[in-house]
Design brief:
The protein has one domain (21-152). The chain is 75% helix and 0% strand. It contains 7 helices and no strands.
Length: 162
Amino acid sequence: MRPLARLSECVFASPRWLHYGAGLLFAGIRFRLAYVFFAAGVIKAQSWQTTLALFADEYHVPLLSPTIAAYLGTGIELVLPPLLALGFLTRPIAFALFVFNAVAATSYPDISEAGIKDHIYWGVLLAVLALQGGGWLSLDRLLAAPLLRRFGGTPSAPANGR
């Protein structure tokens, strides 16, 4: 192979290490987001009377009563993050948490500038997961591979089969 063609292949082809690196990056994103949302749910569950008071007085969730919003919000924060961390149903869960994050950011009128930046950061990471999926290091990938083989598809692989 000519040296220029080999250099071009190394630069423009998707090497295997890049594929594995992306999977590790997506796993890291999933774990970080799961920690943030789950920790918030644990705090809400531990001080339930305070949570109910906050939803009644501070958080103004549209279309829901404060009590229903408190139960729903706490439930979402306790149930969805562990599934996200495992990479199970990553895209729909990331989308649900994206919407949840947007509602949380807009329903608290006294949110600080730092709080807005955090919600934007989490929203961008959730959007990446909703669009890209959980990566190769996820239950989605583990469970999809046998189904794809059975029905004639193939799991995604690095470019050039590397």
